[in-house]
Amino acid sequence: MKKLSARRRHPLAAVVVLLLALAATGGLYTAFAPASKAKADDSAQSLTIEEGKKLYEVGCASCHGTGGQGTTDGPSLVGVGAAAVDFQVGTGRMPAQQPGAQVPRKKVIYSQGEIDQLAAYIASLGAGPNVPTKNEYSPEGADIAKGGELFRTNCAQCHNFTGKGGALTHGKFAPDLEGVAPRHIYEAMQTGPQNMPSFPDTTLSSKNKKDIIAYLNAVNSDETVNPGGLELGGLGPVSEGLFAWIFGLGALIAVAVWVAARTAKAKKS
């Protein structure tokens, strides 16, 4: 008993007891505590990437290469980011049915879950634009007038004034933007698909993109009333004015010829 009392009075006794208590507490926590959220998230992300890789190998590798490095049939996907995949696959442009000047929008063959898996795998190959959040592309609270100004400055040359699309060179074209999901419009501006230039945040801020989306929603809404009457596909004032001159003058000339012919016929009789 005297020896035990002497050990308890030792200056390091309290430190030893504290260390033993901490070690026991840590061991019990490790044994019974659930796995950390971060670890669970990492595991889920790894599984998503693995599933995306399987989808890629079946539907994409033949053109873009087994590691996304690209081939003569398809460009490299390293660094294009998840946003590019979400746009291209989410609008049905990929997988492409056949090579051509431009891949058109068509029916989507993957579910959104599968698209997310493909996007996660491509994003793992190299850093690139992420899929935007709803808050970034939602037109709520955006400046429609500012969006119209930005659209006419940066986009109307190809898509025309109201996003109806138009022809380009060598069989290429700017697609009609009516009915395109706001998220896909945002991603197109981010990534610059096919013939379109990209507009990163350094060129058009996230708010600018949101304003443009709001403008397109406004001009293509079923509730929009055109005060000028028939819009002629939204070709713009110059084209529509030329149309009016050609057909208006043509009609007046036709009427004048008809009147002259009737007058000449009346004189002869």
Question: What summary fits the major beta sheet?
Answer: 2 strands, antiparallel
Share of residues in strands: under 5%
Mean pLDDT: 84
Low-confidence stretches: none
CATH homologous superfamily descriptor of the largest domain: Cytochrome c-like domain
Q: What's the number of helices?
A: 12
Distance between the termini: 150 Å
Number-wise, the strands total 2
CA-atom Rg in angstroms: 32 Å
CATH names the topology of the largest domain as: Cytochrome Bc1 Complex, Chain D, domain 2
Oligomer: single chain
SS-based class: mainly alpha
CATH-scheme architecture of the largest domain? Orthogonal Bundle
Strand order of the largest sheet: 1-2
Series of H and E elements:
HHHHHHHHHEEHHH
CATH class of the largest domain: Mainly Alpha
Pfam family, one: Cytochrom_C
InterPro entries: bc1_cytC-su (IPR009152), Cyt_c-like_dom (IPR009056), Cyt_c-like_dom_sf (IPR036909), Cytochrome_c_Oxidase_Subunit (IPR050597)
Subcellular location: Cell membrane
Catalytic activity: a quinol + 2 Fe(III)-[cytochrome c](out) = a quinone + 2 Fe(II)-[cytochrome c](out) + 2 H(+)(out)
